């Protein structure tokens, strides 16, 4: 799945989020073994389109619907961060099983500064990956974390040059793609 609005830093509109949710939900019914989420251009996603956020998108349940659908997929999910992941878009990234990023990627979630709350499941997922203090640095102190630091924290699993992103994702997906859907789902269930 590709977030494709590069002229607006792949900022997400209500229609885009609804379409992404439908695609993920459809994947659950199609014996998909791997789902890769990435963006077009140099930014994974700037999060919510700010005009749409101010009009109510920041608190719309579609964010939870999307991240919940990603978590519920019985397949391997990989966020291929071709660039920065910010705001609500980070929820999709946190919902994925694996996260691979290019060195220029930054991670931030400016909810404190913008006066919004994060999506309900995001703080718990973030804290599970990086610990409570680092989650507070991102959500409460507004820290922008570079890819290498995010990898050291456990938020990113691999940092690779841009030209190696697709190949790295393909390597990580290879075993799941070679297995049956039930086998992939069983191992994912065992991990939790």
What does this protein look like?
β1, α1 and β2 (34-39) form a beta-alpha-beta unit. The strands form two sheets. A five-stranded parallel sheet has the order 1-2-4-6-9, sandwiched between helices. It is α/β, with parallel strands linked by helices. It has a single domain, classed as Alpha-Beta Complex (2-enoyl-CoA Hydratase, Chain A, domain 1), CATH 3.90.226.10. It has helices spanning 14-28, 50-54, 62-72, 89-95, 111-114, 122-130, 132-139, 147-153, 165-178, 181-191; strands at 2-3, 34-39, 43-45, 76-81, 84-86, 98-101, 106-108, 145-146, 158-159. α1 (14-28) packs parallel to α3 (62-72). The two termini are 24 Å apart.
Keywords:
192 residues, four-stranded mixed beta sheet, 10 helices, 9 strands, 47% helix
In short:
It contains 10 helices and 9 strands. With 192 residues, the chain is α/β, with parallel strands linked by helices. β1, α1 and β2 (34-39) form a beta-alpha-beta unit.
Q: What is the H-and-E element order?
A: EHEEHHEEHEEHHHEHEHH
By CATH, the superfamily comes out as: 2-enoyl-CoA Hydratase, Chain A, domain 1
User: Can you identify the CATH class?
Assistant: Alpha Beta
Separation, N- and C-terminal Cα atoms: 24 Å
Blueprint of the fold:
Blueprint: E1 2-3, H1 14-28, E2 34-39, E3 43-45, H2 50-54, H3 62-72, E4 76-81, E5 84-86, H4 89-95, E6 98-101, E7 106-108, H5 111-114, H6 122-130, H7 132-139, E8 145-146, H8 147-153, E9 158-159, H9 165-178, H10 181-191
Parallel strand pairs: 1-2, 2-4, 3-5, 4-6, 5-7, 6-9
Antiparallel strand pairs: 7-8
